[in-house]
Each structure stands twice: as structure tokens, then as C-alpha cells.
Amino acid sequence: MAAGSNAPVGVFDSGVGGLTVAREIMRQLPEERMVYFGDTARLPYGTKSKNTVIRFSRQIVRFLMTKEVKAIVIACNTATACALEEIQRELPIPVIGVIDAAARVAGSVTKNNRVGVVGTTATIESGMYEKALRQYNEKAEVYGKACPLLVSLAEEGWLHDTITEEVVSRYLKDLQYKSVDTLILGCTHYPLLRSTFRKIAGEDVTLVNPAYEVAMELGELLGREGLSCRGDVGRAGEKYEFFVSDAAEKFCDFANTILPYDIGAVQQIDIEDFETEDLREGETCRRM
């Protein structure tokens, strides 16, 4: 049965980085309900193979479908790069990722057609940002830089630390030599470090935040499909549900430092219970 317009939006990430996307959905689409899943037991995704990321993503989507979500946002650049097309083919509801919206904006705002992308190793090696950017700006020259240390620094809360500044400076040096005038923060953790990127990159470089852009794209999608929430669906604490695969208390503490509303509870589930080879196979796919 199709989900109604008052059904929640499903959002998932490899861990806490996708909370930047959840934050923007709360801010930009305050009327919408949301179910968030963070795969905290198996992060990071950025160092894992494409097949492994697809398998993890399928399990999470199977769980979200049990919550009768009306649309899904893959709030993880690595999962978007590796699994978005597979998930879109297999689900009867809209599924969007964080790459396309950011690429569209970057392609339109760059003045010298030199665009930098920072992200995990898997995201950069996938070439997905370059592919997406070329759809919107054929002249764009795209320069990717893997920044694997930044996820850990963000999760440690070292958002305004001199060590973080030094690491960002080293990573951006190659892109600065390329004279990029636009920089995509191609990992959902990186908006937490936005002020550091701004300081190191300089005021002349336009920073593109995929979390904000995908929230805006989601709003347009829901409106276009007639899925925008109608009517009052309750207070903030009733509209949002959070699930993780491990370390629920730690996740809750971190979430409450960055979200616009405190979340009272985070539920831990065994995501391996939702093993499936093909999402179209339905309930019989769930492993006993």
C-alpha cells in the first residue's frame, strides 16, 4: 500500500554525519515527519567496497520500509555514490541522494569552471560528482581530494581546533593550486567544519553544502509528487524517530549538540536482521 502524504521521510547515513542533512530537513521542511537511521556499528563506509556499501544500504532501506516511509534520502555521499542507482531501481517510492543537488548548484555558481570536491576515498574514487557536474556544466573541470581524517575529527568534536585547521589546510593545498573557485563539501560530516573550510579556502571560494541542497530538493520532490505533509503531525519530539545499529547513547549526545531540537531517545536495532538480496522480493527476504 502506498504511503500517504503524512507518512515520514526516511533518512539514512553510515553514522552521525547524516545528521547535518536531518538538521536541514528540520529547518527547511519543519512540517515533515522523519525516521533517521545511523549505521554506527559499521562506519565508516568510505573505506569499504562498493558491493559492501550496497548490501548495507539494502538492509537499511528494508528497515525504513517497515516504517512506511514515503520517500528516502541517502544522507551519505559514499552510499549515494555506490548504491543510489540500485536502490532507485528496486523501490516503488522516490529515493534521492546528496550528490546531484550539490553538483547542480556548483555547476551553476562557478565562474571559472574549476570545481573542487572534498570527500571520503570511496566518494572521490567513484567519480560521481564529476559525472553529475558534467550534466549541468559541460565546461566544468572537477578536482577531487579524499580527506579521510576529517570524519574522525568531526566526530571527536574538534570543530574549531588548530589540529583540524592544519589537516584541512594540508588537504586543500592541492585544490588551491588548481585555482578552484567553488568547493563542494562532499561528505555529510564536513558542514560541521564549514567555518574551518571557509577560513582556509578564503572568501573568494564558494562553499556548497550538500545537506542544505538536498533538503531543498526533497521539498521540491515532495511537492511535485503530491507527497508534502498536510496538517499537524505533532510536536518535534513526536515527529522525529532515530535509530542506530550501535552506541545509541553516544549518538544521542552528539545529535543533541547539532540538531535544532533535543531528541529524547534513540533506539538501537540489529540491522543484520534486515538482510536482503533484492528489495523487490518483499517480506520473504527478511532473514530469520
Structural account:
The protein is built from 12 helices and 10 strands. It has a 6-stranded parallel beta sheet, sandwiched between helices. A 4-stranded parallel beta sheet has the order 6-5-7-8, with helices on both faces. Helices cover 44% and strands 15% of the residues. The chain is an alpha/beta fold and 288 residues long. The model is unreliable at 281-288 (pLDDT under 50). It has helices at 19-28, 50-66, 77-90, 99-109, 121-126, 128-136, 149-155, 162-177, 194-201, 210-224, 236-239, 248-258, and strands spanning 9-13, 34-38, 71-74, 95-97, 114-119, 141-146, 182-186, 206-208, 240-244, 267-268. The chain folds into 2 domains: 9-97 and 213-285, Rossmann fold (3-Layer(aba) Sandwich), CATH 3.40.50.1860; 99-210, Rossmann fold (3-Layer(aba) Sandwich). The chain starts with 8 loop residues before the first strand and ends in a 20-residue tail after the last strand. The longest helix is centred in the first third of the chain and has 17 residues, at 50-66.
Please tally the β strands and state the result.
10
Helix % is 40-55%
Order of helices and strands: EHEHEHEHEHHEHHEHEHHEHE
Whole-number average pLDDT? 91
Please mark out the parts with pLDDT under 50 across 5 or more consecutive residues, or reply none.
281-288
Largest sheet: 6 strands, parallel
Kindly report the CATH topology of the largest domain. Answer: Rossmann fold
**How many whole angstroms does the radius of gyration measure?**
18 Å
Strand order of the largest sheet: 4-3-1-2-9-10
Helix/strand-derived category reads: alpha/beta
Strand content bin: 15-25%
Separation of the first and last Cα atoms:
24 Å
Shape: globular
Question: How many DSSP H or I helices?
Answer: 12
* Corresponding CATH architecture of the largest domain: 3-Layer(aba) Sandwich
Domain count: 2
What is the class of the largest domain in the CATH system?
Answer: Alpha Beta
